[in-house]
Write a structure and sequence with these properties.
This protein is an alpha+beta fold. Helices cover 37% and strands 13% of the residues.
């Protein structure tokens, strides 16, 4: 079990747990299982978000296979780390492209 989550599951006396106070062992086990379930649900949500990010990265990195749009060019990088213009191609092998222009500078406290 992960030590970061409160759980007294499997312990004879759960009164030593500061985060979980259960008057009866059975109630303590139920509360521990609820906490475990909540913890695993949070971890599962993190994994789902990470998988979605990786799917997007792979899909756009292999535009020739997936047929999705991709950035095919851009202007010089400015001091804020972004180009003023980028060229976007709607699909690999397409003769068409569109130019996009940055209309505002990066709005972060350090810029």
């Amino acid at each position: 079990m992960n030590e970061n989550r409160p759980s007294c599951f499997g312990q004879d006396d759960c009164s030593s747990m500061a985060l979980v106070s259960c008057p009866v062992k059975d109630e303590c086990e139920v509360e521990a299982l609820r906490n475990d379930l909540k913890y695993y649900q949070q971890e599962l949500d993190k994994c789902r978000k990470l998988i979605n990010k990786f799917q997007t990265i792979v899909k756009h990195a292999q535009a020739e296979r997936s047929g999705v749009y991709f950035i095919s060019g851009g202007s010089e990088i400015e001091k804020d780390g972004l180009p003023m213009y980028i060229e976007v191609c709607p699909g690999f092998g397409s003769d068409a492209s569109a130019m996009y222009r940055k209309i505002t500078h990066l709005s972060a406290p350090e810029y």
